[in-house]
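I have been asked to look over a protein record a colleague put together. Thanks in advance; the entry in question is below.
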Amino acid sequence: MPVRVDLTQLLASAAGGRFPPADGGVTVVPQPSARDAGVVAFTAHSVVFTDEDPGWVRAALAALDCDPLAAAMHPRFLAALLERTSRAMDTIDLLTVAAPLPGDPPVRLRELTDPDHPRVRRALHHRDEVRVWSAGGGIVVLGRGVAGRWETAIEVDEDAQDRGLGRALATAARHLVPAGEHVWSQQAAGNARSVRAFQAAGFRPVAAEALMYLGS
């Protein structure tokens, strides 16, 4: 019998540098929670996490007239999955991950107990156990997201750009995550500032991710 895997296992393996086989295949796994569904596209292997019928998923992919390696991230498949699940999504993100770091963060942080920042409100929609810190012109958010993974996001004020604050905040997240836990972050592919900041802070690109959420 084939070994059953779930998204939590696949993400943990990817964080450790062990990826699905680059065989052009698609793995369909159940949603890790009612909140989270979507697609993670590793190199030449995609993972669709949904509670929809796997037979429907494979039929929808097979019906596409496109490169099989790109099928799971094809706009027509994503649109079909969104319609079938009555979900919404924002964009396809670059999914990155980093190991924790010991000691104190490289920037002085002040934890916010009642944040009202747009990025924070968005984090509360997608994550649990959310905590937020501010640091002279920027914030760093940490919480549990897809499949319980620790996720971080940063925001830097426009007048504080180009001073290395984004890199410092992204690095801070590696100090804030619990010991032994990797920390994940998504960056929109077009947000070059964010991509540069996270990679400078040691976050490794591992996949592309289309996260689908409930609501319009």
Residues 165-176 form the longest helix (12 residues). The chain has a mean pLDDT of 92. Helices lie at 7-15, 54-62, 75-85, 118-126, 165-176, 192-200.
